[in-house]
Design a protein that fits this description.
Number of domains: 1
CATH architecture: Orthogonal Bundle
Shape: globular
CATH superfamily: ACP-like
Order of helices and strands: HHH
Number of strands: 0
Strand content: under 5%
Low-confidence stretches: none
Distance between the termini: 17 Å
Length: 78
């Protein structure tokens, strides 16, 4: 649902092609500064507030994980 927007954002920072399930953190594609940028991107582009309890690596480790996180937040399930 939100994958295309997420992919476009990630392409600005990751030059390699990644699949939707690929772990961008364990793959060494991102660092802690990028994690902050990713959270800000999600908040600004999807009109969400990422709470401290949401800051679990599992929510942000892949395109699919980010997509699921955004959908769950929008549905009020997070």
């Amino acid at each position: 649902m939100y994958r295309d927007t997420i992919r476009t954002f990630l392409k600005n920072y990751i030059s390699d092609s990644i699949n939707d399930d690929q772990d961008i953190f364990s793959g060494g594609y991102v660092n802690s500064l990028f994690a902050t940028q990713l959270v800000l991107f999600i908040e600004e582009n999807f009109d969400l507030t990422v709470e401290s309890e949401d800051l679990n690596l599992d929510n942000f480790k892949s395109i699919n994980a980010i997509n699921f996180f955004i959908a769950a937040k929008k549905d009020g399930k997070r």
